[in-house]
Every structure is written in C-alpha cells, then in structure tokens.
Hints:
alpha/beta, Rossmann fold, GMP Synthetase, Chain A, domain 3, 21% strand
Amino acid sequence: MAKVATVGVVGRTNAGKSTLVNSLVGEKVSIVSPVEQTTRNTVRGIVADPRGQLVLLDTPGLHKAVGTLGTLLNRMARRSAAGVDILCVVFDAAEEPQLEDVGWMQRVAKERPEKVVFVLNKADRAPFFETMFRDAWKEASETGRSPGPEKGNNPPSNSDPELSSDKADPLWVKSISTTQGGAKPVLDALFDLAEEGEMLFDEDIVTDYPRKLAIADSIREKYLAKLHQELPHELGVVVKSIDETPPAKRGTKGPRWEVRVDILVNRPSQKPIVIGRGAETIKYVRKCSERELGDMFGVKVDLELWVRVEPNWMKNGRLLSEMGYLGDLV
C-alpha cells in the first residue's frame, strides 16, 4: 500500500512556501512573488510519487495583521496547521529568525504535534543562519514544556503519553526550492513520516484549487511583477463570470473561455496606475495571464479586465467572500 499524508506548509510571509510547494508538486499551483502576502488563500497541491501521495496545503504567510484582510489571512494560516498529518514549517534561513518564526516554534513547542518538519530554506545563500534557528528552537522548546509538578506531588510518569513532554523534536531539513532537485530532502523527509493509506486524489490531479481563484491569482501575480511595491496590498481581483461556450470567434479553433474580471482599487488615483500609460500595464497583464491560463486549463482563454474603484474593499465581507477569503477554504 502507498504512503499518504496531508501536509500543512506554514511559516512567516515570504519564507518561500509557495516556491517550495510548486517545486514539490512539479508544476505551478501557487503564485510566487517577492512581495509579502502574495498567497492569500490556502492552495492545495498534490504530489504524485512512486512512494505514494502528499497533499500540500500552501497557506498565507503569518505576519503582523493590519485590517480585516490581514486578520483573515493569519486566521487561515493558523487553521491550516490544525488537523494535518504532518506540519511543515518553512523558515527563510538566509535571514536571522524573526518574530513570526519564533511564534511558530513556540506553537510547536506548546502543542507538540507528533510529526513536524522544520525546513531551513534558501540554503544556497550566505550567510546561512542555521545555528541561530536551532538555538531559537531550543529556547522555545524549553519554555514551551509543561511545568513540573507542584512540591509534594508525585512526578508524572514518562510512560504516560498524555503527560510526557519527551515527544520527538522536529526533523530539520535544508532546502533550495528554487533549483531542480533542491527540495528533494524535504520530499524524502515528508515521505519518511507519511503512513500507509488509501490515495486521496486521482494520480493525474495536481491541485483541486477552485478555478476562479486560480484565474484571479494568475492575474494578481502578473500585477505584482509589473507594479512591484507600488500597489501590492491594495489590489483585489474578482472573477465575475466564466463563459465556456461563447460565440465563435474568427481565427480561433478549439475550446475557448471568455472570462470577465474586476480589478479593484481603493482610490481613483490608483486606477491610472493599474491601467498604465496607453493601457500598457493592463494589456501586459492580460496577455501574460491568458498565455499561462491557457496552458493551465488546456483551452484558449480570453480575459475581459475591468478596473473598478471600490473604497475599502478589504473590509467588504461580500467581496472578500467572492475572493475566497471567507468560509472553509481547506
């Protein structure tokens, strides 16, 4: 029987979680950008391997929450860490441990899940702060252990699994998720911890991420690449409709989708930035996304992009729900 496990891939924002998931799956299932909070939903990537199947939950990065959207992203990240077979915590070890890194360590030390992998990502960088991360875990684990018995009480027996604090420490693995084969140590570690069971998905499925959210993510990724820090967190993408049987279009053969999308900004002054001079920016985004989505879905995709001013859209429950930030996403 094959080995099977669900894996919660967590860590602070911009630690390289999405790149690692894409590398493990072997295909792009999660958007990647140097901009923080790129991943806004929990993306499910499925690894097919001769040893079995891993179901990876790529989560939003934990960060200091600002506003309704930030709080929702942190809630999704924490929720995805619960109920999985293996918890995979990704650290950007090219930087010294940050507050959010220590926070994940403290959570692991307190809750003591049975199977945990600590990934020291970006192992090809110098300096590489492996020692500082190990020291931070040592401190967190000592602080997080249950306090000893009060004076006069009998000490708990280490044979009692409910009272013992001697659960196995996390398995430490180094990774270079941006290079071919650089994530193999992580893959091997996860399969070592996985147990025999029935496959959860068909072998040819790499993700069950809803297509509307996948389309929105592709468009937002292209905007992040084009605009960089200019509008990273004030840009929303809502897929309003997908027409799988549109009228025939001259010069186009085979199946075709027409997809209507709203691009949301907070203020009128942001609209020209999103459109660009001579519509250069929006044309670039449409062209790049149409190509990527065509490869992803195996059909010709025609995007109709509309830029709309929606003040405080990040506090609008209806819009957040349309974007998949509310409800059970995992």
